[in-house]
């Protein structure tokens, strides 16, 4: 199965970083394409996007200043199918991407994604204050996974993503 292409560029406000693509995303070639994944609804409901986008429009979000990548590129049924070797390689590749493109914010879509990347044992929701970022100058933000399997109530998830929206709005004024 093909890897889902990254959507990265210089000058991005936010790069959203997932564990890895789902099988459905791999089949369609777009990020967060599983219909049970709430990612696109969360972005819209938090104010990060002006309308509800479809996964097939993921490349269009570059125009809004948002990019997409994963810590591991290989599509799998679940994150439990990712090997330690893939995480090790993925950490180095992700660090290189963040160093190359230097987004304002690296938004990790799930605490596990952040802890795998940073090698820290825990993280709070939101901006990671009081810790040195893995890539100097790139702010780290931890958001809940958008998977339909997440048990956190949707309004709580949206509120955490809304912090990103509020931060980017404040930065523009």
From TrEMBL:
Q: Which domain of life is it from?
A: Bacteria
Among InterPro entries, the record links this protein to: MUG/TDG, Uracil-DNA_glycosylase-like, Uracil-DNA_glycosylase-like_sf
Question: Signal peptide: which range, if any?
Answer: none
Carries keyword Ligase? no
Note the CDD domains from the entry.
UDG-F2_TDG_MUG
Protein's GO biological process: base-excision repair, AP site formation
GO molecular function terms attached to this record:
pyrimidine-specific mismatch base pair DNA N-glycosylase activity; uracil DNA N-glycosylase activity
Q: Which UniProt keywords apply?
A: DNA damage, DNA repair, Hydrolase
Which Pfam families does the UniProt entry name for this protein? UDG
Q: Where is the Uracil-DNA glycosylase-like domain?
A: 6-153
- Keyword Hydrolase on this protein? yes
In terms of Gene3D superfamilies, this protein maps to: Uracil-DNA glycosylase-like domain (3.40.470.10)
Query: Which protein are we looking at?
Result: DNA glycosylase
**Which species is the source of this protein?**
Paenibacillus borealis
